[in-house]
Amino acid sequence: MSRKYVVKQLSIFLENRKGRLLEVTETLKDAGINIRALAMAESAEFGILRLVVNNPEKARSALSAGGFTVAEQDVFAVEVSDEPGSFHKVVQILAGEDINVDYTYAFVGNSSKAVLVFKVSEGSLDKAISALDSQGIKLVEPMFFYE
Amino acid sequence: MWNRIEGASREEMEALQLRRLKETATRVYHLVPFYKQKFDEAGIKPQDIRGIEDLARLPFTTKQDLRDHYPFGLFTTPMDQVVRIHSSSGTTGKPTVVGYTANDMEVWKECMARTFRMADVGPGDIVHNVYGYGLFTGGLGFHYGAETVGAAVVPSSGGFTKRQLLLMKDFGATVIAGTPSFVLHMAEVAKEEGYDFEKDFRLRVGFFGAEPASEGLRKALAELWGIMYIEAYGLSEIIGPGVAASCPHGRLHIMEDHFIPEIIDPETQEVLPYGEEGELVFTTVTKQALPIIRYRTKDITRLNIEPCECGRTLISMESVKGRSDDMLIVNGVNVFPSQVEHVLTKVEGTTPNYVIVLDKKGVLDKLEVWIEVDEQTFADGIGKLEELKTKLHNEMLNELYINVKVKLVEPKTLERSMGKAKRIIDRREAEGM
């Protein structure tokens, strides 16, 4: 049941090197990929670019062909109203279930809604989705991203 | 001169070498099955050795042979006669082991005493020894040698640079012994700390070895500290430091009454005439616990048999500039790329594409290992990648005793920029050191 809310996220290993991000965006542009959500994590020497795109399979093969190190993860997304306390409510439910959030990132859509993407440890993905679903949080179906 | 043999005639030297060579050949032939087999294969028996030129008919020994007989397989004495064991790091986790009887210790002390006497070190001198004490032969070799000539030794070993400088000043050290890179590092720290080299230090001579040093580095050390630069050459398989030492005229004299040198063509294994460049080979003729026949050092050099202005007739070798294998010397510690690979494989479960980058940080060597992050290695999470780096760093420290900076790079970076087969990039040369 909860599987239908699983969204494919791509992460790309990037050295901190001038022009490297540009090469990623160029590869995606050339493959006709639309980026729906993104987040960048960085350390002193390298970074990880995380993307949710409209066509993960195609994006992945284009990036691999371009020589990038790409990995795929299962994440999920929720839609909340764009107002104080809505993010808190989601985090509270997850904390209540003792679920660790590896990372999360958000984007504000074209309405009064915000979309939050969550990565939790692999073993607790189903549990997280079920908990949020049963407590009335609106989960976003992958089709929303994929189009 | 410590011993009159250092100035003996060629005839006397060769007669002594021949007698000792016969004894050693007889000893290894009858006591070590490995040597018996090798001699038999080469079709020679110890009694066939009639002149010193017959040395060229004996079989070679390699580092691999030592490893294959780990730990004590090539020893010719029972263990109750062994009084010291040293060991050097090995390429795949298996070290090479060397042993000394009480008499071997005397030989070693004698050779180190001759080394110290190159600069007339003796009673009244204070030797500040920054060679590492431990399994490495450097620290204890210099230590015993200094005591043998009657000098006072400060066994300070490496590290703790600021404290070392304080002790050198307060104790009034007149002699320093250590690796060139570390002693240069000490000079830099001394400058930063505001020491006045002329007023604060009494050093007059330095003994350097365990890693190659360029002309520039030697000059810099001599000038900075205001010392005479003496080179000490050695390798643990032969005895440790003390195999050769440079005289005030700059010639690196080999203690050939104990270690007979030859130069061979590394490809054809033919002995080359004096003056020609090739691989240095040693036969020990006085050692008991671990005598070694025609040991291939992999060091590339040439020999000079002309008597020296210093009065010594001991044959001399040029300073070693290159090696015929891929061993790296990082701050005096031997590192083989295969050791690095071994650790990578152990930690990662597979052998990643990697490159070893050697650089200078100030005067010290800095070793970096660049590892390509492929899809097997890549974990989505900064923390996990940092963890991998830490784990690799710790393993290298544990297994190779070296401080490595691990850098994660994208796949094909290495291939693109420096050719896949090239595993080592040594940028130290560019510094003119």
Describe the structure.
- The complex is a heterodimer of chains A (147) and B (433).
- Helix content of chain A is 31%, strand content 38%.
- Chain A has helices spanning 20-30, 56-65, 86-96, 125-134, 143-146, and strands at residues 7-15, 35-42, 46-53, 69-81, 101-108, 113-120, 138-139.
- Chain A is built from five helices and seven strands; from the N terminus they run βαββαβαββαβα.
- In chain A, strands 1, 2, 3, 4, 5, 6 and 7 form a seven-stranded antiparallel sheet that branches.
- Chain A is an alpha+beta fold and 147 residues long.
- Chain A has two domains: 5-73, VC0802-like; 75-140, Alpha-Beta Plaits.
- Chain B folds into two domains: 4-325, ANL, N-terminal domain (Rossmann fold, 3-Layer(aba) Sandwich); 330-431, ANL, C-terminal domain (GMP Synthetase, Chain A, domain 3).
- Chain B is built from twelve helices and 21 strands.
- In chain B, strand 19 (364-372), helix 11 (382-400) and strand 20 (404-409) form a beta-alpha-beta unit.
- Residues 416-421 of chain B have low confidence and may be disordered.
- By secondary structure, chain B is an alpha/beta fold.
- The longest helix of chain B is centred in the N-terminal third of the chain and has 22 residues, at 10-31.
- Chain B has a nine-stranded mixed sheet, with helices on both faces. A four-stranded antiparallel sheet of chain B has the order 10-11-12-15.
- The interface between A and B is medium-sized, with 20 and 17 residues.
Strand content of chain B: 15-25%
- Number of structural units classed as domains of chain B: 2
Give the class of chain A from helix and strand content and strand pairing: alpha+beta
Percent of residues in helices of chain B comes to 25-40%
Could you state the oligomeric state of the chains shown?
A: heterodimer
Overall pLDDT score of chain A? 90
Radius of gyration of chain A: 16 Å
